[in-house]
Every structure is written in C-alpha cells, then in structure tokens.
Prior knowledge:
The complex is a heterodimer.
Chain A: E1 7-11, H1 15-27, E2 31-35, H2 38-43, E3 50-55, H3 63-72, E4 79-83, H4 88-96, E5 101-104, H5 109-141, H6 145-155, H7 160-167, H8 171-185, H9 190-200, H10 203-206
Parallel strand pairs in A: 1-2, 1-3, 3-4, 4-5
Chain B: H1 4-28, H2 32-56, H3 61-90, H4 95-109, E1 121-131, E2 137-145, H5 149-173, H6 176-201, H7 211-253, E3 257-262, E4 267-270, H8 272-278, H9 288-294, H10 297-311, E5 316-324, E6 330-341, E7 347-356, H11 358-413, H12 419-448, E8 455-457, H13 459-476, E9 480-485, E10 492-494, H14 496-513, E11 523-531, E12 535-542, H15 549-554, H16 570-580, E13 585-589, E14 595-602
Helix pairs in contact in B: 1-2, 1-7, 2-3, 2-7, 3-4, 3-5, 4-5, 5-6, 6-7, 11-12, 11-13, 13-14, 14-16
Amino acid sequence: MSESAPVVHVVDDDASFLTAVSRLLRAAGYEVRTFSKAEEFLAQLADAPGCLIADLQMPGLSGLELQAVLSRAGHSLPVIFLTGQGDIPTTVRAMRQGAEDFLTKRAPKEALLEAVDRALARDARQRAERVRLRELRARFDALTPRERDVLRQVVQGRQNKQIAADLNINERTVKLHRTAITTKLEVRSVAELTRLVQAAGAFEEHLPTFPKGQ
Amino acid sequence: MNWMTIAWPMAAAACLTLGLIELRVGIAQPPRAARLLFSLSAFAIAVFSGMELALMRADSVGEFEQLLPWMDALVGVVMVSLTAFIWVFFRTGNKWLAFAVPGLYAVALVFDFLPGSDMTYREITGLKTVETFGGATFNVAEGVPNPWNAFAYLAALVLIIFVVDASVRLWRRGGRRRAVVVGGGVTLFFLLGGVHTALVDTGLVRTPYLISWAYLCVLIAMGHELSADVLAAAQLSRQLQDSERRMDLASDAAGLGLWTWDVVSDQIWATSRTRSLLGFSESESLSLPRFLSAVHPDDREAVRGTIESALNGGRDHELEYRVQLPDGQTRWIAARGQADRNDAGKTVLMRGVVLDISARRRSEQELQQARGQLAHVARVTMLGQLGAALAHELGQPLGAILRNAEAAELFLQHEPPDLDELRAILADIREDDQRAGEVIERLRALLKRRRIDPHALAVSDLLANCEALIRADAAARRIQLEIETAPGLPMVMGDRVHLQQVLLNLVFNAMDAVEGEPAGARRVSVQARLDGGRNVEVSVSDSGHGMTPERLELAFEPFFTTKANGMGIGLPISRTIIDAHGGRIWAESNADKGATFRFTLPIAEEPVPAEAPAA
C-alpha cells in the first residue's frame, strides 16, 4: 500500500463555509480536498486513506444519500456530518448507517478536529485490518485442496488417526500435510492455527467442499 | 192460525232489531241524525207490521175503520223520516220536493180523521175473506174508493222523485256506491210496495198488504250503508292501534320519549321512557312545576321562557336543557314540542318528544377543546418552522465566520504567519457577516408582509368576524368574552386581513393572560368607540395578572415574551401593521386587574367607496 498522507474530503454546497472549513483543517495540518457537490466527490473517489466531511442538506445528493452510495459501493470511508441544525430523526438515521460523527456547523473547533482525528484513526485501523486479512487469505490460498481437508478436521480437534480414516489416507501422510500447513500458514501450534482460521473468518469461502457426515 | 201470523211478527221483529241497533250506535257515534231517523222509520214499520196483521185478521168493518187511520199515520211517519234520512245521509237533495212529501200526504191523511170516511175508502161496505198461497185466509175491506187518496200516491211519487234526484246528485259528487245501494234500494222497494198497495186497494190483486215487507227491504238497503260506516270505523281503529304500535316501536328505537301536556288542567302525560329520561318515577303525577323542578337551575329560566313563548303564539318550539337526576347526575335533553290551540287561539295542549343528547354534548365539547388545541399547535408549529428556517439560513454564514476565525488563530501561531491567508480570511468574515445580515433582513420583510391594502370598513364587522373565530375557543377555555361596539361608529380605513391579525393576536394574548385565573374570573372584553373626531379606538382588556410598568414598556419589543413557548413577535408585528395604518397601539394597566391593549384607526373620509366594488 502506498504511504500517502490521509486526505480529508469536504463536501458542502456553501462555498464560503467550504473555504472556511478547509482553511481551518489545513491550518491544523491536514491534507484537504473540497467539493461543492456530492457527485463531484464520487467521480474522483479512489481507495486512499482519509475521511469525509459532508453537509447534510445539499442540492442533488444529500449527505445521507452520499453515505448510502458509499456503503453500497463497499467503501468504508468514515463520514462526519455537518448540519445547520441537528434534528433527532436524521441524527439517528445517520448514526445507524455508521456515521463517525454528527456535528452542527457551529460546533467548537476542538470537537471538529477530534472528530476528524477519530475518523482518520478508524480509517487507518480499518485499512490495516484489511491488509492483514488480505495477506492471511493469500496464505490460505497457498494450501492444496487435500491440505484444506486436513486443516478442517484439525481445527475440529480430531486425531491424526481419525483424519486418516476419514480421508482414507495414511496416518503418516496426514502428519506430512500438517507440517506443510503449519509452514505455509506460519504458525507453531494447533491453538494458533485455530485462532488464525477464525481471524481469517473465511473458512467456508476457502474450503467449500466440506464432506458432510464422513 | 196460518203462516201469516208467524211471518208478519218476524218482519216486525227484524225492523225492531235494526231500529234498536242503529239507535244504540247512533247515541254513541255519527252520523247521529241519520241513525236516529233510521231507527224512527224502523220502529214505525215494526208497529205498522203488527197493525197490518191485525187488519188482515179483523172480523168487522168497525175494527177496520179503527185501525186504518193509525196505519196511514205510521206510513206518513215513515215517509217523512225516510225523506229526512236521505236528506241528512246524502247531504243533498231538492228542498221543495222534500217538503212536498209531507204536504201532499197530509192532504190525504186528513180524511182519516174526518168522521164518516177514511183515506182509502169513502165508505166501507163490507169484508171479504180471501184465500192466498199456502191456504191462508185473510180479510180485506170492500167499499167506495176515496178520490183524495190520489194525494197519498202523489206524495209517494214525489218521494221517489226526491230520492232519485238526490241519488243522481250524490252520484255526481262521487258517492256512487251509496247512491246506488241506498238510492236504488229505496226507490225500487218503495215503488214495488206502492204499486202493490195500489193494486190491493183497487182489488186487482188479491194478496195481503206487503207494505211492511217492502219497507223491511228499504231498511236493509239503508242499514247496509250505515253499518258500512261502523265497519269502517272499526277498521280505522285497528289501523290506529297499528300505527300507535309502530310509533311506539319507532320512538323506542330512536330513544325518544313522548309527552303531552294538558295546559288547562296542568297535567302531563308521559311515556315511561320520558319519565326515565327526566328522572321521574313511573307512578308519580306530573305537572309543569314538577317538571321545572327537575330542570337544572341554570337552565330553568330559559326553559320557562321557551314554554311561555310557545304558549303565547309560537307554534313549534325546540330547546336543549339539562335535567338533574335523582342520583345527582346531569343529563342533556333535547326537546321539541308543538302547541294545539282552540278556536279562540288559546293554547290548550302541547305535545312533543324528548331525547337524551348527553353523548352528543360531550363529544361537541371535546371537539371544541381539540379545536382550540389544534389552533394553538398550528401557531406554535408555524413559529417553530420559522425558527428552523432561521437556524438553517443563519447557520451557514455564522458557521463559516467561526471556522475562519478559528483558522486565523491557528495561522497566527505559524512562524511566520501567512498574512495573505489572514487577509483573505478577514475579507471572507466580512462577507459572511453581510450575508447573515441579509438573511435577517429577508426574514423581517417576510414577517412584515408589508403591502397594506386599505379600504373603508366597519369596525363592528371586524369585531364580529373576530368573535366568530374565537367564540368556540373561549367557551372551551371557559373564558367570558364580551364584545361591544358603540352605536353609530363611522367606517375606518384599513386592510381587513392585517387588522384581523392584530385583533386576533391581542385577543389570544388576553385569553392566555387570564388562563391562570379561576374559571369564573376569566374575562376578556373587546370594545370599540369613537376617540375624538378623527379616530376609532379598539381596546382589548383582560382580567389576568396584569403587567409591571417595565413589561408594558418592553411589550412591543421584538423577541420579548413572558410566555413559555412564545416567540415575542406578535406585538411587534401588530405595531408595524397599526403604524402602517397611521394609527397608534399601546398598552396600559387596568385600575383593578389585568391589562388593556388599545389601538386607534383613522376614520375614513366621507366620500370613500365601500370595500366591495373595486371599480
């Protein structure tokens, strides 16, 4: 992944407010990009670290609609909403859709900057998590189908003898498979192996041919 | 002994029975005269029938001579009563013909009561025994016929003409059945009887006299129609009972109580539903004072007044009142009544219905309360929306100013500070400040809605309109509302809609001000009077807690309010409107309690056209 600095995207139809916010954020040391319309922002959207500050009430796509489009497209960019006045129903809806924060336009500077920091931190965390997961899956992908069969039985806590009988192979061969698995997945114990499988969370996805009841 | 001694008494008995029946009925029910005349002829024929039998069995000329005059007299009675019967029963006929009948007959009858002669014979020479069917024998007289007897026949002929004439008249007037049955029957049998008697008299036919039989038939024809009346009356009474039962059913289903008040004897008849609705027991006797004692004291005078005006002229009346039930509860009653007058125009009877309307009253009251709440909610919501719009419109520039100022603070901490950036920031702050000012100005313009469209208008109309709008609200909040316009006020120049807004605003404020007072002490009074020669002054006074002098000063300042959810814009707007009219608006404390708001409006110049026709 590139090491580029995170970018704070600001979307607001009010030009003077847009300028003022970007000025403040830049003065506070953030990289800022401004958009006067939600559609403009979506057009240049790339998978880069950052967060989004959006006005709730805008012509065209509103703040909430923009958030919905993002989450449908699988972007996990944290969103901070700004509003002239906050009413309860919209706040609830925004939060339920996973808004990072919900601030009035005249909220104190500290609240805004803290919200941005929190949003960026969450973005960084999510990104790191995604990277780790991707790497993990790459390791799982390296397993042969037979190794995956053995792995499934191992994490269920079965003995080598049982596995051998089930899969109709030699017990020694099972041992060989297990060695290959631990090497490829870079683990040292069965406990660690189990944790890894759970963390990858993709057992079904990677091992779809589980032989039921054998 | 032969069949004649049985047959004649039977005819007599039949006549007697018919006569007695009609006599009995005639005493009780109309047509009385017709029934009594019928009885009279029936009794006469019954007696005649007996005498006819005696005559036929008479052994000597002396007996004959004794009986004949009375029999002729009875025939006279029958003819007269028959004529009269037709006259009253048909309610028509030729008067001269009617009078001719007894007149003519009397001429012939005179001979019966002159010595040495009678109506039929100048002289009876002897008796002759005749045998008729069944081997029965009877006696007839032989003698020299009396030529004056022709008058008797003439009388019978006139009678027949009278009956035919009356029948034709009745037929034309639509009483066809009666004309045919009675008129036809009387004519036919009378004719037959008369002809037969003439034949017997002249000796051409050797049978007994059949006068009583012919008359029996006449009676039956007459009685048939008379009894039709009785039958119709019986049927009518059945129908009446039916319709009464239907009425009971309907009134029961509708929950209606029926009552009748006999004004003269002051007695009230009431159905059991009426009694239970008004809280009376089943058995107690009712009168007007007893009724009034059940009416709620607050409504008693109104009820008494309505009853009195119904007694003295009003025909129908309608009223709603409360009754106090024995268990202490109150029930709302709607009553509707009708007065019956005698020929002198005096009310002798009133009848009507009562209905329980408590549920309707309750829902009306609830509706009124809801309406008041709704109006309040609408006002609050309107202002709330205004507030939201204000927050949004001002939020943008104010937010931008804040962010710019914060950014400037941060830039100032940089070393060296970016002066160009700071200048740009200051320029933006100034611009946003102007924007915020414009928002406020736009809002002010919106609230003012400046265009005033003055016309000549009557202040009394203004007050009446206002009253119509708030009367229900005031009643629901149990506020006593007094509206008073001095008589002969001149027209003023003004914009109806704007002035309405001012007046409503003042009245609503006054109503809010008395809200905290006890129910009996909530008074709002609106008055209009002449103020000098050039203005009309309208004042709105309340009996609320009043205002301190400082508050009176501040009352017209924007955003000053003493109400929990007030916006403080009603009075400033009112002042703007009154100023635009060239009037004045101010507030003062009342001497005793509460506050009064007053405004003046200039009087319209005389030749100004009225509001409606905009030429």
